[in-house]
Amino acid sequence: MTHQPSTINYQHFAPAKVNLGLSVLGLRPDRYHELHSLMVPLSVGDELQISPADTLSLHVVGADLPTDERNLVYRAARAYLDAAGVSSGAEIVLHKYLPLASGLGGGSSDAATTLLALAQLYPAEVDLPALALKLGADVPFFLLGSAALAGGVGEQLTPLDVPSVPLVLLNPAVEVSARDAYLWLDEGRGFTPELDIGGILQALRNGVDVPYFNALQPEVVRRHPPIAEALQALSGAGLHSPLMSGSGSTCFALAHSPEQAKATAKALAEQFPAWWAAAAAVGGRESA
């Protein structure tokens, strides 16, 4: 089959995410974990340039990452092109702005954005959610483009309307393997009950302390003291409801206004020059 590439915008934004609460209910029979998490896209993220080409190629700017099958973006592109029956390829340039292995879903978002971009570039009857799930448990979330309650291994998604609250992200230059984080949780049997989603949404709307938690946080923090320092720094800067996102190491806390978020992120970047700090907002790019 011959595919003619569509005329589209070749610049694509791949948003980061945070977990506004992450509960691990237990181990499933298949040895994966049963999750209950409120996931929200953010106004900060990576950028991809994807254009038609004779073959598939990937170039990464801003990080020392492989550019072959070891890279999730490359695997996503290869999976879509094969499923769509496209004999040509794509030239992909990934501009990496998010820290690596940081609990922000950067790699998963980059992969999902690649699938969406190629579906525009080479339209075909392809089951994108099925492709996404094969690439990783978080990848289907980034196809949605909205906040969602995630269950199962993260693939059972219920879109939710979440207020666009401002927040500050702080990464203490520590890389945490998600595999390790879940292994440590298993060793400590630190399984948790479901999140109070109604209570979380009400607190977000009212700008008060949010009753969320991260089941992975205690064991990860115990092994990586800089994460505890980051949580304390966010709280000490006048923000509220600090929490580690995902498996870490990025932490976040909520601000009362976009202006406070921007000023605090700037101050933290000056206080911790070796760390990564950014102001963001839930669900849009306006406060990036």
UniProtKB/TrEMBL annotation:
Kinase recorded as keyword: yes
Listed EC numbers: 2.7.1.148
The protein's annotated pathway: Isoprenoid biosynthesis; isopentenyl diphosphate biosynthesis via DXP pathway; isopentenyl diphosphate from 1-deoxy-D-xylulose 5-phosphate: step 3/6
Name the record gives this protein: 4-diphosphocytidyl-2-C-methyl-D-erythritol kinase
Function recorded in the entry: Catalyzes the phosphorylation of the position 2 hydroxy group of 4-diphosphocytidyl-2C-methyl-D-erythritol.
Active-site residues from the entry: K17, D138
UniProt KW Calcium keyword: no
PANTHER family: 4-DIPHOSPHOCYTIDYL-2-C-METHYL-D-ERYTHRITOL KINASE, CHLOROPLASTIC (PTHR43527:SF2)
Key words of the record: ATP-binding, Isoprene biosynthesis, Kinase, Nucleotide-binding, Transferase
Binding of ATP, residues: P99, L100, A101, S102, G103, L104, G105, G106, G107, S108, S109
Pfam families to which the protein is assigned, alphabetical: GHMP_kinases_C (PF08544), GHMP_kinases_N (PF00288)
InterPro entries named among the record's database cross-references: GHMP_kinase_C_dom, GHMP_kinase_C_sf, GHMP_kinase_N_dom, IspE, Ribosomal_Su5_D2-typ_SF, Ribsml_uS5_D2-typ_fold_subgr
EC class (word): transferase
Entry's transmembrane regions: none
Domain of life: Bacteria
Domain GHMP kinase N-terminal: 71-145
Reaction catalysis annotation: 4-CDP-2-C-methyl-D-erythritol + ATP = 4-CDP-2-C-methyl-D-erythritol 2-phosphate + ADP + H(+)
Domain GHMP kinase C-terminal: 210-273
GO MF entries: kinase activity
Family: Belongs to the GHMP kinase family. IspE subfamily.
